[in-house]
Amino acid sequence: MKSFALKILTPERTAFDGIVECLTITDVNGLVTVLSGHAPMVSVLAPGPLMLLADGKKRRGQSSAGLLHVTREETAVIVDSFEWDAEPKE
Q1: H/E run at residue 18
Q2: Domain 4-84 fold
Q3: What is the rounded distance in angstroms from the CA atom of residue 47 to the CA atom of residue 64?
Q4: CA distance 39 to 18
């Protein structure tokens, strides 16, 4: 599976900065999945789960409201707060 650059940013920290194969996040209309080559877009995020696949490992966290910004170069999740649920699963 192809990959893309992802950043998860809060005012206090960079919660994630790396390469992922897949991102699924909650926006105001439901779940949105971003894969490599996704069309550029901006979306308003609702509080809810965030799931990603990086190096074949699934990770899950909870984000507050914010913005999703997808470009050809990278994807950024910009939220007030974000916390990982647990350690990566294999």
Answers
A1: strand 14-20
A2: ATP Synthase; domain 1 (2.60.15)
A3: 4
A4: 20
Domains of the chain, by residue range, sit at: 4-84
Burial of 24 (0-12, 13-18, 19+ CB in 10 A): middle
Cα of first residue to Cα of last residue in the chain, in angstroms, is: 16
Q: How many of the other CB atoms lie within 10 Å of CB of 70?
A: 20
pLDDT (tens digit per residue) in 12-40: 999 999 999 999 999 999 999 999 999 99
Distance (Å, rounded) from C-alpha 60 to C-alpha 8?
A: 12
At position 33, the amino acid (one-letter code) is T
> Cα separation of 50 and 60, whole Å?
6
Q: Tell me the per-residue pLDDT of 33-83, one tens digit each, with 9 for 90 and over.
A: 999 999 999 999 999 999 999 999 999 999 999 999 999 999 999 999 999
